[in-house]
């Protein structure tokens, strides 16, 4: 598949790509920075990473007591401090913990639209309150180039199967305990 095919998969879900940051390991933070700027949250990608890492330093567990470190594959990090040190480095690829932290830090819903289709979507919501807004990030899946992009919602439309898709329906999501 070509990159255009991945973008088409995102478009078929009711979104269009509005910003494609450099693929330098900082793309999730850059796409998030682009999205939050529309809400008046003015942070550079570097500042966004720094603030998310600071938030995570004090957020070792989800509200249900489940350790966030358990969401990472293959016990890559021996302890939470190792993860925090790793994630603080410029160019370190992000994971599913960082949008969870960003949703809580910025009090927003973060809807991830995947190139894998509707079943690959995830919604990250703040735990302590109702979100102030929703931002949309696209994700080209690992086997499809691994990249986060900034998206804009398009009016309701039909997906490739002809089934009507409601762009306001976020689908399922949150950090899973797989």
UniProtKB/TrEMBL annotation:
<feature type="domain" description="OTU">
    <location>
        <begin position="22"/>
        <end position="115"/>
    </location>
</feature>
<dbReference type="InterPro" id="IPR050704">
    <property type="entry name" value="Peptidase_C85-like"/>
</dbReference>
<feature type="compositionally biased region" description="Acidic residues">
    <location>
        <begin position="167"/>
        <end position="178"/>
    </location>
</feature>
<dbReference type="InterPro" id="IPR003323">
    <property type="entry name" value="OTU_dom"/>
</dbReference>
<dbReference type="Pfam" id="PF02338">
    <property type="entry name" value="OTU"/>
</dbReference>
<feature type="region of interest" description="Disordered">
    <location>
        <begin position="158"/>
        <end position="178"/>
    </location>
</feature>
<protein>
    <recommendedName>
        <fullName>OTU domain-containing protein</fullName>
    </recommendedName>
</protein>
<dbReference type="GO" id="GO:0016579">
    <property type="term" value="P:protein deubiquitination"/>
</dbReference>
<dbReference type="GO" id="GO:0004843">
    <property type="term" value="F:cysteine-type deubiquitinase activity"/>
</dbReference>
């Amino acid at each position: 598949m070509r990159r255009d095919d991945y973008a088409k998969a995102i478009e078929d879900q009711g979104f269009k790509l509005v910003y494609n940051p450099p693929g330098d390991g900082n793309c999730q933070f850059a796409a998030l920075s682009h999205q939050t700027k529309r809400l008046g949250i003015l942070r550079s990608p570097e500042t966004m990473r720094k603030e998310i890492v600071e938030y995570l330093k004090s957020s070792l567990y989800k509200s249900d007591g489940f350790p966030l470190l358990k969401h990472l594959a293959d016990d890559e990090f021996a302890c939470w401090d190792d993860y925090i040190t790793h994630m603080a480095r410029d160019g370190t690829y992000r994971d599913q913990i960082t949008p969870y932290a960003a949703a809580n830090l910025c009090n927003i819903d973060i809807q991830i639209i995947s190139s894998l289709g509707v079943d690959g979507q995830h919604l990250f919501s703040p735990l302590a309150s109702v979100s102030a807004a929703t931002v949309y990030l696209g994700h080209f899946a690992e086997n499809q180039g691994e990249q986060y992009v900034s998206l804009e919602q398009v009016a309701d439309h039909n997906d490739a199967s002809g089934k009507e898709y409601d762009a306001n329906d976020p689908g399922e999501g949150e950090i899973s305990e797989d």
